[in-house]
Structures are given as C-alpha cells and as structure tokens.
Amino acid sequence: MQVPLYQAKAEFFRMLGHPVRIRVLELLQGGPVPVRDLLAEIEIEPSSLSQQLAVLRRSGIVVSIREGSTVSYALAGGDVAELLRAARRILTELLAGRNELLAELRQAEPEPPLSVPHGGTGRT
Predict the structure, then answer these.
(1) Element (DSSP H or E) covering residue 4
(2) Each residue's pLDDT tens digit, 89-100
(3) Average pLDDT of the segment spanning 36-61
(4) Is 92 within 8 Å of 99 (Cβ atoms)?
(5) 71-121 pLDDT tens trace
(6) Residues contacting residue 109 through CB under 8 Å, at least 6 positions apart
(7) Beta-strand relationship, 70-75 and 62-67
(8) Spatial contact of 9 and 43, defined as CB atoms under 8 Å apart
(9) Residues 6+ away with beta carbon under 8 Å from 25
(10) For residue 59, which of 75, 46, 48 has the smallest C-alpha distance?
(11) Bridge partner residues of 13 (DSSP)
(12) Is-contact 62 53, C-beta < 8 A?
C-alpha cells in the first residue's frame, strides 16, 4: 500500500525537525564540509553529530564523501538549500507581523486597570 503524499511530507518534515540537522544543512549550503569542521561549528559530542548525520544520510538529503582519512558531507541536491531559504523568508514574515502587532500594542491607549471592590481581594 502506498503512503499518501501528505503523510510522506509529514515524515519528511519530522526528519528535519531537529536543530542539529537544520544547522548541518545550513552549513552544507556552501558545499561539502569535513566532519571535523561541522563538529567545530556545532559544538556537540561527536557521537551525537554522527547520529544526526546518519538520519540525514538515510533520508537521502546528504551524501558522505571520503577523501583519504577525511569524511565530508554535502547536500544531495539544491532543493534543500531552497527549502531553507523559504523557511527563512516565512519566519521573517511571521516575526515582522509580530513586531508590527507589538508596535501597535505599545502605541495603543492603555486600558484602565480592573477595579477591585473596596476592602476585599475580589474573591467571593
């Protein structure tokens, strides 16, 4: 039985749903990066990075390249970089909307405080 497209998309986004994986993909946008450089940039335990790279490799989003004793990783295709750029644009728009709302709230006339009945705490 074939998996529905919406379910496949959900699994794809779940696979991306880890900060280390997103950071790795961001770092790989400029081309192949040796594992030692990824470790220096991300600052996590080597075993944790290895686990996250394995998830990305199994999904087919990244490929490993061995040159002598150096292992590097690269994006398997340019579409992932475009997806990351789209995510940045979407987040920028969302946050800009929040900043506009915050500015409106700050400019709005303050609402009068709620009055508490005299001599009580307002509890019944």
Answers:
(1) none
(2) 998 888 887 888
(3) 95
(4) no
(5) 999 999 889 989 999 998 998 888 887 888 888 888 886 666 676 666 655
(6) none
(7) antiparallel
(8) no
(9) 16, 56, 61, 62, 75, 80, 81, 84
(10) 75
(11) none
(12) yes
Q: How many residues does the chain have?
A: 124
Q: DSSP string spanning 59-122?
A: HTSEEEEEETTEEEEEES-THHHHHHHHHHHHHHHHHHHHHHHHHHHHHSPPPPPPP--TTS-S
Per DSSP, the three-state class of 1 is coil
3-class DSSP assignment, residue 18: coil
Residue 61, number of CB atoms within 10 A of its CB: 22
Question: Encoding tokens for residue 78?
Answer: 């340019």
Whether residue 54 contacts residue 20, with contact meaning beta carbons closer than 8 Å, is answered with no
- Give the separation between CA 50 and CA 60, rounded to whole angstroms: 15
Structure tokens at 22: 């997103």
- The DSSP secondary-structure symbol of 17 reads -
Residues pairing with 63 in the sheet: 74
Residue tagged 């001599």 (tokens): 119
DSSP 24-48: HHHHGGGS-EEHHHHHHHH---HHH
